[in-house]
Amino acid sequence: MRRGENSPDVCLDGTLPGYHLHRGYGSGANSWLIQLEGGGWCDSIRSCVYRKNTRHGSSTYMERQIQFPGILSNKAEENPDFFNWNRVKLRYCDGASFSGDSQYKAGQLYFRGQRIWLAAMEDLMSKGMRHATQALLSGCSAGGLASILHCDEFRGLFPWTTKVKCLSDGGLFLDTIDVSGRRTLRNMFRGVVWLQGVKKNLPWSCANHLNPTLCFFPQHLIADIKTPLFLLNAAYDMWQIQASLAPPSADPHGHWHACRKNYAHCTLSQIQFFQGFRNQMLNAVKGFSRSNKNGLFINSCFAHCQTERQDTWFAQRSPHIGNKGVAESVGNWYFDRADIKAVDCPFPCDKTCHNLVFK
Hints:
The chain is an alpha/beta fold. The chain is 27% helix and 15% strand.
């Protein structure tokens, strides 16, 4: 994205943002898949100053070339439905899921996520995306939240004849109570929303009646999104377990330390706590899943982000619900081959999971 040096669409440190593009061919030449990169958020001056010295806050630290596995792969045997599409990875360097618009002059911090999003879309439209017959906006983690926040905006870029849908992978962050009875994630999101000026960019259908912080949580957004949306999430989302359900700050005596790193070390009561979280997740998507246009794949795994890894997206032993894997389910939903509302039985019934274990 080459733009003027004084252009307002910049990373946290003022460097220019960027994306990686792999051109489509053949039957996919006019189809576009946009993948929004994830990577957490920064909710304070201190955490944003730290972030601007990493690839998640500055293009100076970004790799010039990256691998495209999973949903971005260009091999039919790894990515049967999207391999020959134009595939784009939009790099994440703002810290508010591409939705902030503010700055902190004293610390030379630029909160320009919304402008980065708009500049990238404008640039891609000029590179042929305006002629798209099919488009899919996807993202994982903080990028999965961004794909929900920007879903209807993305739809609005194209004529109604273009088939446009959105996919959120590991982006269903819940406003839930942590193991100490507090709301760690709500406090973090409050910091992100107020520090980075997110309020004015939140979907109006939510912001006109709820506190802006709550409108950063997908559970208050998904029912009002008009564009078809697919939610792919692990019922025991490892990021949420580590950062919002049982973070060290909520566990001063370390009772959750072993469980947080490896589900096999959880006690029965800890697993029951996670079952309560799963129930909240299923409750949050109840209304959403009634709509025919939407898709759902909630598997009972200790995982986070399953579209960007080859082993979880499409491989011989990738996760399944019933007899369908992740890639097949997403493809069936996108191309209207089947109605996909897949919800796993609770842990420990699923033997196909790729559970994450941390050292």
